[in-house]
Amino acid sequence: MRLDVVTIFPEYLEPLNVSLVGKARARGQLDVRVHDLRAWAHDKHNTVDDTPYGGGPGMVMKPEPWGEALDSVIESGEGQPVIVVPTPSGRPFTQELAVELSEKPWLVFTPARYEGIDRRVIEEYGDRLDVREVSIGDYVLAGGEAPVLVMVEAIARLLPGVLGNAESHRDDSFAPGAMADLLEGPVYTKPPEWRGRGIPDVLLSGHHGKIARWRRDEAFRRTVRNRPDLIERADPAAFDKKDREMLSILGWGPGPDGRFGRVAPDVEE
Ligand code: ADE
């Protein structure tokens, strides 16, 4: 997969040289190219921003440097990239979108600073290419570079051969499949006792069926506590008899439409 990032802070993307993404680059599984937007700003001060039409606070990124930068990046490769524009006003970045983007051969990220990029840039490329405006969460950062790091890591770990073990993302929270719509429960490793705290006996039992059930029960506990909205939205057909028993213990039951909601006060541990 090829990834291009156009930014006024190329050094902000240094973490792409480290850890999982850095290793994937070193192995040739990822071709990452970081470009300085100011290379396409031609005045004495390499200006990339200007005051907003209509007034208001802050500055807006000028269209000309972005247009030249994107033309140049797009011309440098084969075929058409998907352009990912990080913005707090975008669609939410989810595991589902990470999976979709991980299947594309080429992504171009356009992290903005200031109040964002002149709208005409998004329209211009949106007419010709697949352009996605994406938010990583309901908070406002100073720029899109940190969101690019977040998205690239979520996407890169899904590429074939990038994580050591192909099974590693099967049980991820939000991964499609058996544990869909549930958060992952707690995990333990050696030593068997630490500061007087042991390991749940079932994990030492060697009984795979019981372990799987315990993990799913713990996933319900955690999801009910941290993300009750996930249970409320879940398709109740995904819940088997044991799931329903656990949900009932946690104070949850089906409503008139079959979907689950809280029917008893929260159980504190
Ligand atoms: N730029 C600033 N805040 C952002 C956010 N939450 N998501 C994506 N890009 C952003």
Question: Can you describe this structure?
Answer:
The chain is of the alpha/beta class. It has two domains: 2-156, Alpha/beta knot (3-Layer(aba) Sandwich); 178-262, tRNA(m1g37)methyltransferase, domain 2 (Trp Operon Repressor, Chain A, Orthogonal Bundle). Helix content is 31%, strand content 16%. It contains eight helices and nine strands. The strands form three sheets. Strands 2-1-6-5-7 form a five-stranded parallel sheet. A two-stranded antiparallel sheet has the order 3-4. A two-stranded antiparallel ribbon has the order 8-9. Strand 8 and strand 9 form a beta hairpin. The longest helix is centred in the C-terminal third of the chain and has 19 residues, at 208-226. The chain is elongated, with a radius of gyration of 23 Å. Bound molecules: adenine (ADE). Adenine is lined by residues 86-88, 135-137, 139-141, 144, 147.
What's the SSE blueprint?
Blueprint: E1 2-7, H1 19-26, E2 31-36, E3 49-50, E4 60-61, H2 63-75, E5 82-92, H3 95-102, E6 106-109, H4 119-126, E7 130-135, H5 145-156, H6 208-226, H7 228-233, H8 241-249, E8 252-254, E9 260-262
Helix pairs in contact: 3-5, 6-8
The chain binds adenine.
Residues 86-88, 135-137, 139-141, 144, 147 line the site of adenine (ADE).
What hetero molecules are bound to the protein chains? adenine
How many domains make up the coordinates?
A: 2
CATH class of the largest domain: Alpha Beta
User: Main sheet?
Assistant: 5 strands, parallel
Number of DSSP strands?
A: 9
Q: SSE order in H/E notation?
A: EHEEEHEHEHEHHHHEE
Name of the CATH architecture of the largest domain = 3-Layer(aba) Sandwich
How far apart, in Å, are the first and last alpha carbons? 45 Å
From the alpha carbons, calculate the radius of gyration and give it in angstroms.
Answer: 23 Å
Show unreliable segments.
none
| CATH overall fold name of the largest domain | Alpha/beta knot
Widest beta sheet: strand line-up: 2-1-6-5-7
